[in-house]
Amino acid sequence: MTLTELVIYLIVAGVCGAIARALAGATGGGFIAAVLLGLIGAFVGTRVARMLHLPALVAISIDGRPFPIFWSVVGGVLLVILAHMVVRPRHFGPYPR
Length: 97
Hints:
The protein has 97 residues and is mostly helical. It has helices at 3-24, 31-51, 69-86, and strands at residues 59-62, 65-68. It has a domain at 27-86. The longest helix has 22 residues, at 3-24. The mean pLDDT is 87.
């Protein structure tokens, strides 16, 4: 893998992670968080798709290696939802801020 391919992978993963955060309602974080969410989301989404015997809907090929765009976004949304369920709310009073 060349440096150019790595940069393309990181940019695509960052866009997928940003879309997943926007769809799931996550706030905060920057490009690094979006890249990590996109990469981990691709792994999680692909695993879920394989377990459910679903096809790869939208994927791009970078130097012969496919990157699942759709499953990256779906996996990222699942991860953000899971994080929202695990992390408790930040308000402590009877009324949310």
